[in-house]
Backbone:
């Protein structure tokens, strides 16, 4: 360890949580970067965009918005990297639900399906029971809600049971929808110009945004109630790690697309979903991604729809 770091424990902690770019510069300041790589302006712009995108991932904010730097730092501190890796569940997301169900029932839990919760009863300032749609009450000492904060505290709980200051904060809680998911069923592995195209090259996360301002422009469209024809996209191909997700030789591609405003200024998602899906596919092709023949399944506004292209 360099003497400068050894003498300053705070610097050692800081290096663990700050983005990769800072670490690189920090090493140079300490005299450890003997031969820094030669990077073109285009490559540097792309690297900046990859890091900046993690600060706005899933958020209704652009890379130049206040507070997104803190989001990036929190992620880096939690995961140990400014750029999180691709994580795929073997067997698909359904396998996760099955594993959770087995673990819960194995511990003595009872799982009910088709049992809508419509109310959380409060007695003496404490949650006391869950009321189902059929009127049945399930008493409990503690209640965990996986609904969002607004649904939990404004719909399930009687607002009169809450502290007025807390209620005001919940009502002002911003939770604007901004992400859509486009899933492609491909007849073969996609190809990138200049990439070897074997599974190892495409097993991570594929970032579609050549520069920070590209992401900001996509956010600008969403601010005014529309989606961009050049969206920021984060792509994974989970069938590389788990071949059971697709027939032999075929693949599935999952595309996280920003930005998709929950409410459109012109039209609605039912009438414009195909246009949005086409924009996402075109943006990928424009970035020299060659897609094999595919079927498309798109989820926007939380409602799955099917289509072909």
Residues:
């Amino acid at each position: 360890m360099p003497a400068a770091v050894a003498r300053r424990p705070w610097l050692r902690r800081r290096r663990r949580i700050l983005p990769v770019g800072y670490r690189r510069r920090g090493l140079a300041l300490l005299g450890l970067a003997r031969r820094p790589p030669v990077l073109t302006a285009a490559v540097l712009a792309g690297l900046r965009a990859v890091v900046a995108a993690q600060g706005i991932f899933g958020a209704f904010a652009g890379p130049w918005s206040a507070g997104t730097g803190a989001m990036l730092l929190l992620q880096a501190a939690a995961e140990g990297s400014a750029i999180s890796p691709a994580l795929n569940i073997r067997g698909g997301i359904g396998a996760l639900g099955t594993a959770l169900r087995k673990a819960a029932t194995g511990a003595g839990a009872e799982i009910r399906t088709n049992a809508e919760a419509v109310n959380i009863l409060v007695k003496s300032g404490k949650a006391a029971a869950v009321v189902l749609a059929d009127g049945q009450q399930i008493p409990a000492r503690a209640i965990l809600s996986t609904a969002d904060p607004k649904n939990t505290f404004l719909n399930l709980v009687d607002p009169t049971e809450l502290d007025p200051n807390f209620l005001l904060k919940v009502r002002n809680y911003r939770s604007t929808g901004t992400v859509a998911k486009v899933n492609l069923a491909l007849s073969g592995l996609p190809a990138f110009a200049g990439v070897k195209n074997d599974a190892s090259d495409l097993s991570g996360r594929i970032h579609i945004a050549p520069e920070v301002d590209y992401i900001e422009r996509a956010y600008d469209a969403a601010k005014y109630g529309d989606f961009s024809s050049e969206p920021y996209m984060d792509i994974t191909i989970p069938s590389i790690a788990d071949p059971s997700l697709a027939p032999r030789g075929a693949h599935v591609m999952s595309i996280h697309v920003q930005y998709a405003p929950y409410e459109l200024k012109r039209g609605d998602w039912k009438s414009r979903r195909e246009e949005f899906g086409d924009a996402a596919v075109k943006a990928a092709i424009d970035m020299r991604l060659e897609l094999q023949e595919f079927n498309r399944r798109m989820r926007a506004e939380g409602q799955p729809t099917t289509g072909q292209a």
Observations:
- The first strand starts at residue 117 and ends at 123.
